[in-house]
Amino acid sequence: MIGSAKASPALSGVPETLLITLAARLLAHRLNPDLGFVDPAAETIGAALDFDPNRFAHDRASLRGALVRSRWFDRVTATFIQAHPDGLVVSIGSGLDTRPHRLGLPSGLDWIDIDFPEVIALREALVPALPRVRSWAGDGTDVAAWAEAIGWRTGRPVLMAAEGVSMYLEPEQGRRWLAASAEEAARRQSALRLVLDFASPMMARNGRRNPSVRKTKARFRWGVSGPAEIERLGYRLRETHDVARQSGSLSRLVGATYRLLTGRLIYSCAVFDASEARRGNIPSGRLLS
Ligand SMILES: C[S@@+](CC[C@H](N)C(=O)[O-])C[C@H]1O[C@@H](n2cnc3c(N)ncnc32)[C@H](O)[C@@H]1O
Questions:
Q1: Residue 72 CB–ligand 1 contact under 6 Å
Q2: Which ligand 1 atom is at minimum distance from the Cα of 91?
Q3: Which CATH architecture best describes the domain 68-287?
């Protein structure tokens, strides 16, 4: 931020979607008080940013879904951190997320936020700094690039989390990213836990009807047929979560109908462990403090 002027979120396309999840956090106390979502660091960011979260307030289902998803990501991340207080968390597509502030991190844990350069610049300006939380600016799907730059040490347990990201990737890009991550973990003899949410093909096809996403120039690209599609990339499923079930009555109804017709979730969060590796060859980027 320059002087006392508010920072302008001059974002477009996929990076602009970070404003949707930020709006969910900023409006949580008003629109979804029953979830008890508390995030003082998000309030600090909101106060410093030239952004009215009411731009997305009409889309109650998406904002509630984002909070339900965030609480679930908080829980599974906390479980990893508890088991591996000296581990490494790599957050792909962090946006202006404030998970480290919500969770509180043990002193031996390293946390890397990865997003595009314009987003990382905004993070550096707005997100309250924490010890051992660093950023890397670049394409989070360029695994070999960030793995080298952040100093992923051999044998270190890693949690790679990507919240609200996979649906914006080209399908082939998404599959290469996950396969390359499993391969990198095997090469570095690290246990890799993957936490992500993914849209079903139907949800991806209908992405342009999403009232919040349609306000940005972003589009859904990748619909995942189910956890087996991720498992084939070198992972083993540990847990899934049905976000639609808790995201308001319309989402619940649509999700239940889809489940009845297909036997699948319309929109999932899931935890996987990497189980095997594949070779990849991906270009490099830049490490920020
Ligand atoms: C919907 S926002 C979610 C932000 C954050 N995870 C949250 O939950 O608040 C999607 C974010 O993913 C980022 N993103 C999408 N594709 C990416 C990629 N290939 N590499 C790095 N970041 C990416 C966008 O720039 C944006 O910040």
A1: no
A2: 6
A3: 3-Layer(aba) Sandwich (3.40)
- In this structure, the residue with its CA closest to atom 4 of ligand 1 is 95
Distance 14 CA to ligand 1 centre (A): 7
C-alpha 271 – ligand 1 centre gap (Å): 18
pLDDT at 279: 35
Residue 91 Cβ < 6 Å to ligand 1: no
Closest residue by CA, ligand 1 atom 2: 18
Give pLDDT, residue 4. Answer: 58
Residue extents of the structural domains in the chain = 68-287
Q: Among candidates 207, 258, 265, which has minimal Cα distance to 237?
A: 265
What is the total residue count of the chain? 289
Closest CA to 20 of 208, 161, 213: 213
What pLDDT does residue 195 have?
98
In the numeric block, the tokens 């908080």 are attached to: 74
Separation of CA 260 and ligand 1 centre (Å)? 31
| CA atoms of 241 and 32, how far apart (whole Å) | 20
Distance from residue 261's CA to the centre of ligand 1 (Å) = 31
* pLDDT value at residue 1: 45
**Secondary element (H or E) of residue 172:** helix 171-187
**Which ligand 1 atom lies nearest to the CA of residue 177?**
19
CB atoms within 10 A of CB 214: 13
Q: What is the pLDDT of residue 175?
A: 98
Q: What is the mean pLDDT of each run of 10 residues along the chain (289 residues)?
A: 68 94 97 95 95 94 94 97 97 98 97 97 96 97 95 94 98 98 96 97 88 89 96 96 84 89 92 68 33
